[in-house]
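Write out a sequence, fold above all:
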Amino acid sequence: MERVGSDVARELGRFGTVAGLAPIVEAWPGAVGPEISRNAWPARIGRDGTLHVHTSSSAWAFELGHLAETIRAALGAAAPPRIKFVVGPLPEPAHETSADPRRTPPQPTEEQRLAGDRLASRISDENLRKVVAKTAAMSLAKRDSGRSLW
């Protein structure tokens, strides 16, 4: 099977600086992190080489405008000469699956469930007792997992 990467790059090159967007898009999430990636995404490269980044709001555009040089440095070799942030459409977010261990809270063990039950045992309201016991067990599981964030 023959690779088509060079053919695709050649064809994209016919359209000017659009071809230069691919390395930036690839480097973007790692350079800016998940929070900024959800609210700002590279849209196009202007004829003068300026990277135009769409943001979810004018507040994001304003704040990121102050961080343009820091973001350029983080992009490394893929960095454009200038970055401009403007409100515009963003790509659809990828569906996050609960199988992602960074997004799934740790599940309490039987021992942690029993400890939660013991902690909540003196609460007379049954519904409140169950909620507190479950919350305590989840808290114990989080503590024992070593993760600071879910």
About this structure: The beta strands are 40-45, 50-55, 82-87. The chain has a mean pLDDT of 84. The first helix runs from residue 5 to 13.
